[in-house]
Amino acid sequence: MMTIMTIRNARRRASAMVVRTVKLDAATGASPRRFFPMALLPVSTVRTSTPLSTQRLLQQLNADQLALQRHYDQISTGRRVLSLADDPAAAGRILTLNRDIDRGEQLVRNASATETYYNAADTALARVDDALIQARAVAVSAAQTIISDDERAAFDATVQEAIQSVYTSANSLYRDHQLLGGVLGDSQPYAFDGNEIVYSGSGAVGKTDIGAGDPVALNVSGNQALGSASEIFQGEALGASVDRDSRLVDLRGGLGVQAGVLKISGGGNFIDVDLRGAFTMGDVVDLLSEVEIEGRQLTASILPDGIRLGYADGLAGTLAVDDQIGSQMAQQMAISNPTGIKPPPLEGDRLTPRLTGNTKIEDLRGGAGLDLTGGIRIDQGNKTFDISLDDVQTIGDVLIAINRSGADVRAELNETEGRIRLRSLRSGVDYSIGENGGDAATQLGIRSADENTALAELGKGRGMRLNAGGDDLIIRRPDGVELGINLDDADNIQDVIQAIRNHPANQDTAKVLVDLNDFGNGLQLKAPPGAEALQVRQIGLSDAGIRLGLIAAGDNEAVGSLVGAVDTIIGKDYVPKDAGGALDTLLRMRRAVADGDIPEIERLQAKLDDDLDRASRARGTVGVWGRNLIEMRETTLERDIAMKASRSEEMDADLAKVISDVSQRQLALEASMRLIGQTAQLTVLNYL
């Protein structure tokens, strides 16, 4: 009983110490507040053993010391939450805020780095603009009818300086990355090869995240800024057909067919046919052909543009097909027949797959396939490249054969429209894509000059000059018969061919045959040999012979020669393609100025305007990117400041409160130590 009373008295004295301290604090004039003294570990008021009481008091002392040390840590670090155990909920929020703040700071760094790229690109594009403006001024001045040799030399120097300025800007680097030639290049994208410039860059554009949702571009491509790798020709749509290997995702022009579950009935109950494991049209056909409906076997087959589904016995009946809930496969394949009104077989159409590198040659042109015997010929300036396509199996093989031919072209596939696209990589030359003894280029849709070429496109878009109301060409056969060809009513090359073929004096066995060249492009005239050579000449003011490629520039007539046993005139391509782009225009401008070719200079003025517009748009695009980047960076900085404020509220300690808590905890510690001291003085007399 004495032990219990002594402990109670000690506890009352410890509590009294805390109360008196509070009264002293109040006496200092501090704002009054309700005070709850820190609880001591309850001292047991029941009979307990001395070791147990001592252990509990030591635990209290240890807890007070740890709490006091924690307050000291908060004061020294300024943080309330030092570990997850301090405040798990707040710690979780702090971790989330830390991640968001780190990401925001990285976005700001990305934006700052990207801004320097934009500034460098703007500087390079500014030099391009200045160079093109100088070249445009030269074009205007050089288009005069009379200029001196000194003026021509000065113009040549100015154009050469413009070429060098654009060339240098096009090869600009910043932080080892190309500004205009594609970020993946490991060498300069533009290189001189004699008087021509070859482009080896890529269209790759670097991107970075600045918090705008989608990554933003770091640079502009050579095509976007300078027109490099311009499209010289885009072929006709090749029209792929469906076969067993056609992937469902490629059907419907790339919209795809989503594999699902069909409900099929022969007039009774519907059964489910699960086609979700199908990947190709062959899979669909095989799975459907395994289905038996009310004792009748189904059969499925592939059509050039769809699928046929019916009964294997070929007899009539009911065949209802519908989609299970959540499936659209029957509708997408156009074989949906939920009420069974349409009799079998059911035929779905409009499944034309998009063209891919894996599309087979035999599936093109609606399943008719292509005969690529002979291959194609690419004329590039004064170089000729014959490309064999004998071993190709797919469209991808065709692209590889062209890209590995050595010609400075890049063949691509326009999958959306199902066409082959050809791009030029060498500035300062003309391009021509024609046949190599067969009709492979025509079947692939990439022959750059054919019967449908409009006469208005000849002469680099200047058309032909014709004699009003009279003949424009005179073709003299080897037997001396002359054919006067009037082209007033001709609109395209086919009309020219028909005018020669249908001439009244050209209907006998000695007639002149006219057709497209078997090799390359252009027209060819053939006739049986006679006393004289086959001849074609243009008369009056007409330049039809030159524009049609039958007569060399500067001449008025061309004479045939024997090719085997046939007198032949082989013309040149009547619509060669410019390589395109600012550098190509400048190289052509320099030649035109040196030659005094005023019509060509005038033509190139318009191309320079286009090149300047392109470069200015690219520079404007970079400017817009830069403005958006600044706004995004400011927004990110403001968001970071707000998140840091939120983190501070969660993590930082309230020093006034911590100091107050330290004072209280010190009192509690002192009370605990006194209580331990008093209980330690108990003797056996206290138990008597």
Explained architecture:
It is built from 15 helices and 30 strands. It is α+β, with helices and mostly antiparallel strands and 688 residues long. Helix 4 runs antiparallel to helix 13 (582-595) and helix 13 packs antiparallel against helix 14.
Count the E strands.
Answer: 30
Number of discrete helical segments = 15
**First-to-last CA distance:** 8 Å
Shape: flat
Structural class: alpha+beta
Fraction in helix: 25-40%
Radius of gyration: 44 Å
Low-confidence stretches are 1-8, 10-42
Query: How would a textbook summarize the main sheet?
Result: 5 strands, antiparallel
Strand content: 15-25%
Mean pLDDT: 87
Observed structural traits:
about 700 residues; alpha+beta; five-stranded antiparallel beta sheet; four-stranded antiparallel beta sheet; 15 helices; flat
Produce a short descriptive summary.
This protein has 688 residues and is of the alpha+beta class. It is built from 15 helices and 30 strands.
Outline the secondary-structure elements:
Layout: H1 2-27, H2 50-77, H3 88-142, H4 149-170, E1 173-174, E2 177-178, E3 190-193, E4 196-199, E5 207-208, E6 216-217, H5 222-226, E7 231-234, E8 261-265, E9 271-274, H6 281-289, E10 292-293, E11 296-303, E12 306-311, E13 320-323, H7 329-332, E14 346-348, E15 376-380, E16 383-387, H8 395-403, E17 409-414, E18 419-424, E19 426-427, E20 430-436, H9 440-444, H10 458-461, E21 473-476, E22 482-485, H11 493-501, E23 513-516, E24 519-520, E25 523-527, E26 535-538, H12 544-547, E27 557-559, E28 561-563, E29 566-570, E30 577-578, H13 582-595, H14 598-651, H15 655-680
Antiparallel strand pairs: 1-2, 3-4, 4-19, 5-6, 7-18, 8-9, 8-13, 10-11, 11-12, 12-14, 15-16, 15-20, 17-18, 20-24, 20-30, 21-22, 21-26, 23-25, 25-29, 26-27, 28-29
Helix pairs in contact: 1-15, 2-15, 3-4, 3-13, 3-14, 4-13, 13-14
